[in-house]
């Protein structure tokens, strides 16, 4: 009995030990930055000058499988995990066609002081032929892991208005994720917000601090949660959601005057988002607890 009791205490102690910090590495290869976590490929941040905007692809879960998808014939403007907007001073910085508008990377740098986290600094200009650039943005992207082994991306962007800016009412705006089709609701996956509402019918147009999207992956469950920080303008923004696998907190589709959003030259907008790529459902991954921690940062 004493041996059994000792074993129980030993296993209990081991279970309570914090997960060892995972080593994160990044390599800049031409016009992309590859991120490796404990020897496993996590994501690439792309910023080629012939792309519509910078974006992350692939975004892999802890299992090593994709949790996001990259464009298709119906929605070629859905680039995995990305930030953009259309109907900005007559330009389109979201949908395909570089002549309509483009978010161009001016510089992208990696900084790493700890082996378990790194930061990407990316400066961008919003431009299109024959028009003044309306916006310049600076992105601070921190990549780390959580104590329970989930992968984490903090995407903080500061948008500086270079002239008076009008963003007409649009459903194509700001930070967005397009899920891998194996995880979407149409294929048996789950989309759920902080209030417990599910699916496109339950979440579309509703303000919420986060949405988690997950589904079966082999014999397990894997997914991606997207959070908006309480310090953001328009928080909590209503969500534009689709059962086929699209989520985006989209204030520009629900402007206060029902027409559009007006910003003055010199205005600065700071927006913060956190992405958690995790195993298990929203309860097993403790998405609510992780948001509580995030909201207090």
Structure overview:
- The protein has 297 residues and is mainly beta.
- Helices cover 10% and strands 46% of the residues.
- The chain is built from 3 helices and 19 strands.
- It has helices at 2-16, 199-203, 287-295, and strands at 24-29, 32-37, 40-46, 55-59, 81-88, 91-93, 102-114, 117-127, 135-145, 151-161, 165-168, 173-178, 190-193, 210-217, 220-228, 239-242, 246-249, 260-263, 268-279.
- Strands 1, 2, 3, 4, 5, 6, 12, 16 and 17 form a 9-stranded antiparallel β-sheet that branches.
- Strand 1 (24-29) and strand 2 (32-37) form a beta hairpin.
- The radius of gyration is 20 Å and the shape is globular.
- It starts with a helix and ends with a helix.
- Mean pLDDT is 93; it is low at 1-19.
Question: Descriptors for this entry?
Answer:
297 residues, mainly beta, 9-stranded antiparallel β-sheet, 8-stranded antiparallel β-sheet, 19 strands, 46% strand, globular, disordered N terminus
N→C terminal distance = 47 Å
For the secondary structure, the number of strands is: 19
Oligomer: single chain
SS summary, helix count: 3
The helix content, as a percent range, equals: under 10%
Short description:
This protein is mainly beta.
Summarize the SSE layout with pairings:
Layout: H1 2-16, E1 24-29, E2 32-37, E3 40-46, E4 55-59, E5 81-88, E6 91-93, E7 102-114, E8 117-127, E9 135-145, E10 151-161, E11 165-168, E12 173-178, E13 190-193, H2 199-203, E14 210-217, E15 220-228, E16 239-242, E17 246-249, E18 260-263, E19 268-279, H3 287-295
Antiparallel strand pairs: 1-2, 2-3, 3-4, 4-5, 5-6, 5-12, 7-8, 8-9, 9-10, 10-19, 11-18, 12-17, 13-14, 14-15, 15-19, 16-17
């Amino acid at each position: 009995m004493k041996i059994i009791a000792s074993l129980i205490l030993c296993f209990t102690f081991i279970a309570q030990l914090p997960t060892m910090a995972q080593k994160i590495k990044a390599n800049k290869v031409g016009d992309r930055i590859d991120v490796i976590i404990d020897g496993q490929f996590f994501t690439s941040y792309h910023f080629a000058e012939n792309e519509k905007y910078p974006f992350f692809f692939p975004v892999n879960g802890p299992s090593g499988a994709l949790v996001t998808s990259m464009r298709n014939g119906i929605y070629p403007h859905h680039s995995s995990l990305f930030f953009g907007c259309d109907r900005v001073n007559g330009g389109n910085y979201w949908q395909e066609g570089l002549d309509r508008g483009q978010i161009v990377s001016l510089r992208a740098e990696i900084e790493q002081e700890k082996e378990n986290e790194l930061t990407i600094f990316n400066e961008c200009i919003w431009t299109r032929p024959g028009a003044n650039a309306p916006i310049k943005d600076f992105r601070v992207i921190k990549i780390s892991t959580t104590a329970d082994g989930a992968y984490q991306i903090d995407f903080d962007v500061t948008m500086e208005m270079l002239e008076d800016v009008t963003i007409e009412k649009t459903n194509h705006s700001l930070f967005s994720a397009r899920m891998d089709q194996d995880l979407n609701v149409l294929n048996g996956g789950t989309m759920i917000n902080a209030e417990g509402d599910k699916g496109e019918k339950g979440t579309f147009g509703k303000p919420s601090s986060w949405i988690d999207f997950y589904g079966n992956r082999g014999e397990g469950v894997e997914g991606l949660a997207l959070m908006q920080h309480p310090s953001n303008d328009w928080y909590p923004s209503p969500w534009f959601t689709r059962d086929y696998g699209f989520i985006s907190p989209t204030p520009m589709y629900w402007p206060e005057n029902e027409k559009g959003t007006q910003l003055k030259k010199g205005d600065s907008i700071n927006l913060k988002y956190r992405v958690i790529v995790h195993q298990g459902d929203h309860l097993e991954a403790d998405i609510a607890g992780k948001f509580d921690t995030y909201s207090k940062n």
